[in-house]
Amino acid sequence: MEQPEKIKISALQMCSKIGDRFANYKKVQSIVERELQQDVDFLVLPEVWTVGWSCEDFVSCAEEINSSDTIKLLSDIAKAYNTNIFGGSFIQKADDGKYYNTCPVINRRGELVTTYSKMHLYSYCGCAEGTYITVGKEPVMVNLDGVKFGLTICYDIRFPEIYRAYRVAGADVLLNMAAWGLKKPIPWESLTRARAIENQAYMVAVTQSGVIKDDDWNIGHSRIMDYVGETITEIKDQKEGLMTCEINFNDMYTYRNTCTILKDIRKCYEVKSV
């Protein structure tokens, strides 16, 4: 399919109720019914919105992909609003008994197109994702309506290699769907912007908001940035709802053709140690 000149994209920020999938389903439905515009082409959700950032609850909230209530809900929304959905992530129980932090991608017809499983698992500073979750095998770039999206989840943002691989493969939009902690504001603000700038690509960085437990909170600053790192739209602080904007690919490709940074990449960066 030929790439469109423009698309309209929305991203959803929410505070998930820990360990309660069905309460979180109701919240997503409520936000969508209240705020999603009928002409939106793409909708993006945050990481583990079905369960919240609680590694200890991941297994109890896991779903098999063929019988997933999460995918059923997102499929119904996609068909009702004629929109493509990047479903943040849910905890997938695979046939081999392993668990994955998985993003489902659903087209306008409500069909599951592909999935991406998080490749880098955060197991530091009191988090133990790697204890419960298995590492995803490979990056996934998906072409929907003629637009190429590179998929990443949360901690993946610290690894620029995956984003450069997407850009070299032809990505137009980079996605990072997160449940990012409030105590790490500088990495969230800096790394999400850097990935847009260094790859000359639109960047959708959507995270959860609200309290996780005790004094642990999500950062709640979701943003969509353009190919030079300028913020187009954002949801600040702990608000819940949608942010929506238009993306212009003609502008991006004009800039890429003027500033051809990929041509300056060296084949080898072997370090000379002296």
What do you see in this structure?
This protein has 274 residues and is α/β, with parallel strands linked by helices. The protein has helices at 21-35, 69-81, 129-132, 160-169, 185-199, 249-258, and strands at 6-13, 42-44, 84-86, 90-93, 99-106, 112-117, 141-144, 147-153, 173-178, 202-207, 211-213, 216-217, 222-225, 231-235, 241-248. The longest helix is centred in the N-terminal third of the chain and has 15 residues, at 21-35. The termini are far apart. The model has no long low-confidence stretch (mean pLDDT 96).
Number of DSSP strand runs = 15
Instruction: Return residue spans where pLDDT drops below 50 for at least 5 consecutive residues.
Output: none
**Largest pleated sheet:** 7 strands, mixed
User: Helical segment tally?
Assistant: 6
Mean pLDDT: 96
Q: Approximately what portion of the residues adopt beta-strand conformation?
A: 25-35%
Shape: globular
Please report the distance between the alpha carbons of the first and last residues. Answer: 52 Å
- Helix-and-strand structural type: alpha/beta
**Rg computed from alpha carbons, rounded to a whole number of angstroms:** 18 Å
Q: SSE order in H/E notation?
A: EHEHEEEEHEEHEHEEEEEEH
Q: What would you call the quaternary organization?
A: single chain
